[in-house]
Specification:
six-stranded mixed beta sheet, alpha/beta, single chain, 16 helices
Length: 451
């Protein structure tokens, strides 16, 4: 964050300083007091289960020098009527002050946002100091928190933008109109909130509509609903994917024994070979999006290829671990929807080994399509795996869809017990579910077992 006094922050946010207004904030803002840094700002919210203001002292012990909240605390505090709106106003001000030096890249889509954001962050970091969203910080709090990590040295800002309703992405884009907007796909994720694919497409298209004047839209050439977003902008458009007409096209894809892709990225003027240290053929598609975003900001294809070769992903996204006893674990437990589940199952099938075991939890927010989609994933999993374990009530129908290969287990403890008693050396285990299922607990338990 750029240094600002509490008096300056109060003027920007419309708040009132309680305490010493000359105190200067010089480090990023956080909403978890334990994550505060020396010189940082602790943003406190009063929720139904906990009141962040009660943790101001904790934040102070960790280094925070001030609080932004809705009532006074033990630390100097900017008191605002709406702490969330104040946080967003502060982020918009900081980004606005840096705008002459800062190039902003936004990414959205029904799935793959975080992984692609990570790849975009790697490409941008190869060209200059970059701030990218941590994990899936993509909502009305996560985006401004990411923006506030930018400082006078930052050249690139990579923002992930999610939505649960029409207007969410438009509101995020107003905080800091992106110079580049990457739209990955229109799938079924969160269809409960949008009602239809048309509603999801409308929500994702808000990123294209919210671009800065002259901004570049980077669109998935393989998804007709995304390609149609070309009509939402008068600015430049770069497409990516496997389609013949893609401006940045994935060609000659190969997978090694661990399912890691090597492929070409081809444009009208050049072609480079990329070896990704990531699992799954779908990551090649994500990499083409990252390279297209790089071209949009002037990063040559060759430089993007070099950066992608050293890229890594956020936690619990296709993490490959060798467990005691010679078992290979693919931990993709952060989130799930029908499209990402199929991609993960494809990755499982590509990894060489003995039996392939898919441990699948529920996929949330699928609305009326939930039972049918879970059953379909079970059938798809049965074609890719030798054993399909469905964990929890939401996922029980997955086991039905998997037929004779399906096993329904009540909860995470039951899944751990089954796996510990039956996995063998050489087996490959995929763990995949929506975040609420907390299947990361299963992965952790397997990793802690004795060899």
């Amino acid at each position: 964050m750029i240094p600002m006094s509490l008096n300056e922050i109060a003027a920007v946010t419309g708040g009132t300083v309680k305490g010493d207004g000359t105190v200067r904030v010089t480090a990023p803002a956080v909403i978890n007091g334990r994550e505060s840094e020396p010189g940082g700002l602790f943003v406190a919210f009063a929720g139904d289960r906990a009141d962040g203001h009660d943790y101001a002292e904790q934040a102070g012990h960790a280094g925070a020098v001030a609080v932004l909240g809705s009532r006074p605390t033990a630390l100097p505090t900017i008191v605002a009527e709406d702490a969330r709106a104040a946080l967003q106003a502060l982020a918009a001000e900081v980004a606005g002050r840096l705008r002459g030096q800062l190039t902003v890249v936004g990414v959205t889509g029904s799935q793959g946002k975080t992984s692609t954001k990570d790849l975009i962050g790697a490409v941008l970091a190869g060209a200059g100091p970059t701030v990218a969203a941590i994990g899936s910080a993509n909502n009305e709090l996560g985006v401004p928190m990411t923006m506030l990590r930018a400082d006078a040295d930052t050249r690139f800002l990579a923002l992930e933008m999610g939505a649960r309703r029409i207007g969410d992405i438009a509101a995020l884009a107003r905080l800091c109109a992106p110079d580049v907007g990457v739209v990955l796909n229109v799938g079924l994720a969160h269809i409960t909130f949008f009602g239809s694919r048309w509603g999801i497409a409308k929500a994702k298209g808000e990123l294209v509509e919210g671009l800065a004047p002259g901004g570049t839209a980077v669109l998935n050439a393989d998804d007709p609903a995304v390609v149609a977003m070309r009509a939402l902008t008068d600015g430049p458009v770069i497409t990516f994917g496997t389609a013949e007409h893609a401006d940045v096209r994935v060609v000659d894809l190969e997978l090694d024994r661990l399912g890691r892709p090597t492929f070409g990225l081809r444009t009208a003027d050049a072609e480079v070979r990329v070896a990704l240290p990531l699992i799954g053929a779908h990551q090649a598609h994500n990499a083409s999006a990252a390279a297209a975003a790089g071209l949009a900001v002037g990063i040559p294809l060759e430089a993007s290829a070099a950066a992608l070769a050293g890229a890594s992903l956020s936690k619990w996204r296709m993490e490959l671990c060798e467990l005691p006893g010679g078992v290979t674990l693919l931990n993709d437990s952060y989130n799930s929807n029908p499209d990402s589940a199929r991609a993960a199952l494809d990755a499982l099938a590509a990894v060489e080994g003995g039996r392939r075991i898919a441990v699948l939890g529920g996929m949330l927010e699928l609305g009326e399509e939930s039972e049918a989609e879970h059953r379909a994933i079970g059938a798809y999993a049965a074609a890719k795996a030798d054993v399909v374990i469905a964990v929890g009530e939401e996922a029980a129908v997955v086991a039905e869809g998997a037929g004779t290969r399906g096993i329904a287990l009540a909860d995470n403890n039951a899944a751990v017990d089954w796996l510990r008693g039956r996995v063998l050396a050489g087996d490959v285990v995929l763990i995949k579910a929506s975040r609420a299922a907390r299947l990361d607990e299963v992965a952790d338990a397997l990793g802690q077992q004795d060899g």
